[in-house]
Amino acid sequence: MTRLRQVSEADIYHVVSRGTGKQFIYEDDDDRRVFLHLLRTSLSETGVELFAWCLMGNHFHLLLHGDITRISKCMQKLCSSYARWFNEKAGRVGHLFQDRFYSEPINSDSYLLTVVRYIHNNPEKGHIAPTNAYPWSSYREYVR
Fold first, then answer.
1. Which of 15, 24, 30, 46 has the fewest CB atoms within 10 Å, counting from its CB?
2. Secondary structure (3-state) at 144
3. In 3-state terms, what secondary structure has residue 17?
4. pLDDT at residue 3, rounded to an integer
5. What one-character-per-residue DSSP string does 50-108 give?
6. 52: CB partners within 8 A, 6+ apart
7. Could you give the CA distance from residue 82 to residue 25 in angstroms, rounded to a whole number?
8. pTM score of the predicted model
9. Residues 97, 129, 50, 31: what is their CA dihedral angle, to the nearest 10 degrees?
């Protein structure tokens, strides 16, 4: 059964996807680079815009702009192509991602800024690295 998603009037969504059973979805920096390449490809093919991103060990956060149908297609392309690549590389089979992606609609400027901060502060909140030192988010793109 398809779960109905809440729709954003501004077509902006905070999107999160996690590894099955809290499994790590990136084993090394090469995995992260492949994921980002596949993300760029999926965005380009679906016309979805990326406002912010952060790759954590067992999940990722994206702030996306586009209608929910295009975002769903983008996420399906991204997650299925990355899971196929990761499974082939790791010699494993089965689901890499837990359930479908989570999406939260963003309907105000103040909440948009809150979500950008939340995404960028995720590594610090998770006691991984200070926000300004973490290489796997769009934070540095914002401060340049």
1. 30
2. coil
3. strand
4. 60
5. EEEEEE-SSEEEEEEES-HHHHHHHHHHHHHHHHHHHHHHHT--S-SB-SSPEEEEE-S
6. 61, 62, 63, 115, 116, 119, 120, 137, 138, 142
7. 9
8. 0.94
9. -50
For residues 103 and 5, the answer to whether their CB atoms sit within 8 Å is yes
Where do we find the tokens 């899971």? Answer: 83
Pairing of strands 59-65, 12-18: antiparallel
Q: What is the chain's Cα-based Rg?
A: 15
Residue (of 59, 3, 50, 75) closest to 26 by Cα position: 59
Residue with tokens 């490809």: 41
139: enclosing H helix or E strand: helix 139-143
Give pLDDT tens digits for 13-29: 999 999 999 899 999 99
Q: Is 137 helix (H, G, I), strand (E, B) or coil?
A: strand
- Burial grade of 144 (CB within 10 A; 0-12, 13-18, 19 or more): exposed
Report which secondary-structure segment, H or E, holds 16.
strand 12-18
Token pair for 30? 């090469």
